[in-house]
Design a protein that fits this description.
Chain lengths: 501, 496
């Protein structure tokens, strides 16, 4: 009997360990919801001064890295795609378990939500990252439609959707079939990407959408439209909780292509915020004062801001916080190093890529790479037996000199440097393939041959791990990999005139 | 309540817990309530049908016994006949009335007579053919004095409704299950029974969720698109259906056997490596054993079996298989399938002496592996050929399917990767092939050593045993067809 009990206990323990491991590999890891709250749990207790809440309009438009870089505020963007107000309320409850922010910023785009229930995808992204607790159970109950609640459920939901709703609380059922799409990110810490170690919840979008012009608000009807009862109930709960905890709640509406109906709903929400004596700022009324340009600052379909727009908006939000609240500037404080590191990653990944994109001279570019030991890079030369400017010749000679490449004159070839040391080079114009590992998970291959589909001339080139061919179409190419963020960050290219492309 | 549902995952542990903790005398009540709850989760009203079937056979049994005790054989026969007739009438009304009326209308329309409409519009009650047969088996056993009449209604009701095997078998005999129910208070909670039962259930879930529901995609693809597919895809589809129906049906019995075993009950085996059969007769000794022995005991033998001459034997065989076809469903496809199996058996018997002579003359070594292998393969081909009629929605569709196999030959499809274009992507197909290999290995254990998976594992060291159990468990929870993205399929035999 005793022996059997021991066996059962051992079996259950092993089962729990195996299932836990399998679960952590299989669970959803969406960047627009799950990763934010998963990372939030890792934050030091009471380290966040500015808690950012909301939907994609929060995580795509407000960059904690900018609030740190320009103001020294420790903020976290705890948001998820299409998150309804009731899930945001439960996020706030969850956040206040470990944090006591100085101010809560609610991006209130989802105040326009009409439906009382969220779709499966929205629920998953908002709630699957939460740790199991009473709060999570309430959040699930609040978001999920329960079969038999409404008489007209057949009109609102398909049978498949009703079944999906029943299965929502059983998380593993929803992702067990991910075996067909598992990748390195599912197995490795920080999704195999060091940038997530200091991640603060924001997502940077870099594409530019130019279809929309700035909405003319002067033509808009300003008669408020009531929010849906459930959305209003939970908006009020958020404000109530802020009042109860003595934490101001600032509701902001980030700039986007706002339609009139939504504007009228925000006017209604503004009145509710006023009832609680809380700030409500609709930045769609402030396009000009924040300098937003609809031809350069908008991302995908007009709903969100790209990096240019988000930087402007975040800075403006930072100023608003600076003017109205007494928030501490933590820059230089060792306890807030993770925000510093996050800002450093942002600097290296986006914008001027740690200053690299603004350098217009190949020689200076290489000197810059060598001045830090964070870079690996490949120099590729093609067509150096043809005609090119004196300017470019000087640049290439300077590069050779800086890198210690000893050649009789300038010739075609490929040179790969890691931490300033030459790891590999090849100047023989014959077919070859040399795999080169920039780090554990990012491979490229140096090759010689016909690179372009319609080309006849053979070149040295780099083939990326996705098959894409780069670095063959200009005389000088420097392909740069940043070891700090473990990714390719920049490519320097120059044609015969010696001017950077 | 499907076995492969969250509902059952909650239901079964609760029932087990109650079963183990209540006083032993109350066990049958707990199981009876659980069984009715299990059945009523499909359609509460239909519990009345099972209750009626139970009550009629129970009362019939008591009256029958009294008549027999008083040597009123004629009265006993009347009682037996009436009870059988009433139960079969219910079965007919719910299962065959629509079919009968539509066929009648087809005949009437030729004669230009007004068409009859079905006064009832019933959904087929789940498992009606199974529990009706089980209850009828009991009353026939009582008539034959093979079992003492049950006087405890609750115990008898549990025999008819015992939830593990209620809706898709095995069709239990009173001699086995009723006797165990009578002694339910003597069943000891046994670690071995619990663990072995759970292993058997797990294997059942593997067959259903990893193999049957995955290979169903191939079979469905072939049968739904047969009119535009060529020989290779159609053969793959037919073989896929053979594996699907085996895994689907055997998995239900396996889970039932396992679930009963956990509670200390031994149900009869229902499948014994059917595709290793060396003849059609052998196939029916291995496939749906509880039904084929039912027909043998309660139909074939009463008809005279093989004791009334060759022609009568052939006729009896044919009748049994026609009835078997009808039992499977109200459609000509099932009747044709049954008839085909009848013909196989009759032709097999007629040609047996000729074949034996030929083998002798040709000097065929009947003990050689190749001979046995040839017989297994040829039996499988015959069985699978018949499955085409079973799976097709009409007989003409089945003939269309078969004719394309022989006319649209595309031998090159064996080599050009076409197998990955039959509804399952490469990864799923490879997974399926691997799972079928596992099925083959487990079936070989049974075929060669006569061991069920739990019996085989019992002989192994704990490390290996646990390794296999964890591998099966995680195969089911990861690769099982359930949840979003999978359309959980009902067990095929529910419709019978």
């Amino acid at each position: 009997m005793k022996k059997n009990i021991i066996k059962v206990v051992c079996f259950i323990c092993l089962l729990a360990i195996f299932f836990g491991s399998v679960n952590s590999v299989f669970k959803f890891k969406y960047s627009d919801g799950i990763k934010q709250i998963t990372q939030f749990y890792k934050e030091e207790e009471n380290s966040i001064d500015v808690l950012l809440l909301g939907s994609s309009h929060a995580f795509l438009n407000i960059y904690p890295e900018i609030l740190w870089r320009d103001f020294g505020y420790s903020s976290f963007n705890l948001s998820a795609s299409l998150q309804p107000m009731w899930s945001t309320y439960h996020y706030l409850v969850e956040a206040l378990k470990t944090q006591t922010p100085e101010v809560i910023v609610l991006e209130g785009y989802r105040l326009v939500q009409q439906s009382d229930y969220a779709s499966r995808g929205t629920i998953i992204k908002s709630l699957y990252g939460m740790k199991w607790s009473k709060n999570k159970l309430e959040a699930l109950k609040c978001s999920t439609y329960r079969k038999g609640t409404l008489d007209n459920e057949d009109e609102l939901f398909t049978p498949a959707e009703l079944k999906e709703m029943e299965e929502i609380p059983f998380e593993f059922i929803n992702y067990h079939a991910r075996y067909s799409e598992l990748g390195a990110a599912d197995f490795l810490p920080n999704y195999g990407n060091p940038e997530y170690e200091y991640y603060k919840g924001g997502i940077v979008g870099t594409s530019v959408y130019t279809e929309y012009e700035k909405p003319n608000l002067e033509e808009y009807n300003r008669e408020p439209i009531e929010l849906s009862a459930k959305t209003e109930e939970y908006y009020r709960k958020i404000l109530d909780l802020g009042v109860e905890k003595g934490i101001p709640v600032v509701t902001v509406i980030a700039p986007y292509y706002m339609i009139n109906r939504e504007y009228r709903m925000f006017l209604s929400a503004e009145k509710i915020a006023e009832e609680y004596g809380q700030m409500f700022v609709n930045y769609n009324e402030l396009y000009d004062s924040i300098g937003l340009d609809f031809s350069t600052d908008i991302l995908d379909g007009g709903s969100h801001l790209n990096i240019h727009g988000a930087e402007k908006f975040t800075k403006s939000l930072g100023e608003l916080l600076q003017d109205n609240f007494d928030l501490s500037d933590h820059r230089g404080d060792a306890e807030y190093q993770s925000w510093e590191n996050g800002a450093e990653i942002y600097k290296r990944l986006y914008g001027d890529k740690n200053g690299l994109t603004s350098i217009g001279n190949g020689g200076e570019y290489v000197d810059r790479l060598l001045s830090e030991d964070q870079y690996s890079f490949a120099v590729v030369l093609n067509g150096t037996d043809g005609e090119y400017s004196e300017e470019l010749r000087v640049q290439i000679e300077s590069i050779f000199k800086s890198l210690g490449i000893e050649q009789d004159g300038i010739c075609d070839g490929v040179w790969f440097f890691e931490d300033g040391e030459l790891e590999y080079s090849n100047t023989v114009s014959e077919a070859f393939q040399k795999p080169c590992r920039f780090d554990r998970y990012n491979d490229v291959r140096f090759e010689y041959g016909i690179a372009s589909e319609d080309g006849e001339v053979e070149d040295f080139f780099i083939r990326k791990d996705n098959g894409e061919i780069v670095a063959y179409d200009e005389i000088l190419t420097i392909y740069t990999y940043d070891n700090y963020v473990c990714t390719h960050v920049d490519t320097y290219q120059s044609g015969a005139d010696g001017v950077r492309k | 309540m499907l076995f492969n549902s969250i509902h059952f995952l909650v239901f079964f542990p609760i029932v087990l817990l109650l079963y183990f903790i209540v006083p032993k005398k109350c066990r049958s009540i707990i199981l009876l309530i659980a069984s009715y709850y299990f059945y009523m989760s499909w359609n509460p009203t239909y519990a009345l049908l099972i209750l009626f079937s139970t009550a009629s056979t129970f009362l019939g049994g008591i009256l029958l016994t009294k008549a027999l005790e008083k040597q009123q054989n004629k009265k006993a026969k009347v009682i037996l006949g009436s009870v059988i007739a009433i139960n079969l009438a219910i079965l007919f009304t719910f299962k065959y009335l629509d079919f009968a009326i539509s066929n009648l209308n087809a005949v009437l329309s030729v004669l230009h007579i007004q068409i009859v409409s079905n006064p009832f519009d019933f959904l087929l009650p789940v498992g009606i053919s199974f529990y009706t047969f089980q209850a009828l088996g009991y009353i026939i056993d009582v008539y034959r004095k093979d079992i003492e009449t049950e006087k405890n209604f609750l115990q008898y009701a549990l025999f008819v409704s015992f939830f593990p095997q209620l809706v898709a078998g095995p069709i239990e005999r009173s001699g086995n299950l009723l006797r165990q129910i009578r002694n339910v208070d003597k069943i000891k909670v046994s670690y071995k029974n619990i663990t072995n039962g759970l292993v058997v259930m797990l294997w059942g879930f593997f067959m259903k969720m990893v193999i049957a529901d995955r290979i169903a995609v191939l079979a469905n693809y072939a049968f739904d698109n047969y009119w535009r597919l060529d020989s290779f895809a159609l053969i793959v589809g037919a073989v896929a259906f053979a594996i699907q129906i085996y895994c689907d049906f055997a998995s239900y019995s396996t889970i039932a056997i396992g679930a009963a075993k956990v509670m200390g009950f031994e149900l009869m085996e229902n499948f014994n490596t059917p595709y290793c059969a060396t003849s059609i007769k052998d196939f029916w000794n291995r496939w749906h054993i509880s039904l084929s022995t039912f027909f043998k005991d309660y139909l074939y033998f009463p008809l005279g079996g093989n004791r009334k001459g060759k022609m009568r034997t052939y006729l009896n065989l044919f009748i049994v298989f026609i009835v078997s076809g009808i039992w499977h469903g109200a459609n000509w496809t099932f009747i044709f399938w049954g008839a085909l199996h009848g013909v196989y058996q009759i032709v097999g018997r007629i040609t047996l002496p000729v074949k034996e002579k030929l083998y002798d003359k040709a000097g065929v070594d009947r003990t050689a592996f190749s001979f046995k292998f040839f017989k297994i393969v040829s039996t499988f081909i015959l069985v699978d050929f018949a499955w085409i009629f079973f799976r097709a929605t009409t007989i003409s569709e089945a003939f269309g399917y078969i004719s394309r196999i022989f006319t649209q030959i595309d031998i090159w499809s064996l080599f050009n990767g076409s197998i990955y274009e039959l509804g399952l992507v490469r990864q799923e197909m490879n997974l399926l092939i691997l799972a079928v290999v596992v099925l083959y290995l487990v079936d070989m254990l049974r075929y060669r050593k006569g061991l069920r998976i739990d019996q085989a594992l019992e002989k192994e060291n704990i490390f290996f045993r646990w390794l296999v159990v964890f591998a099966m468990l995680f195969a089911v929870i990861i690769f099982g067809a359930y949840g979003v993205g999978f359309d959980a399929q009902d067990f095929i035999y529910f419709q019978f």
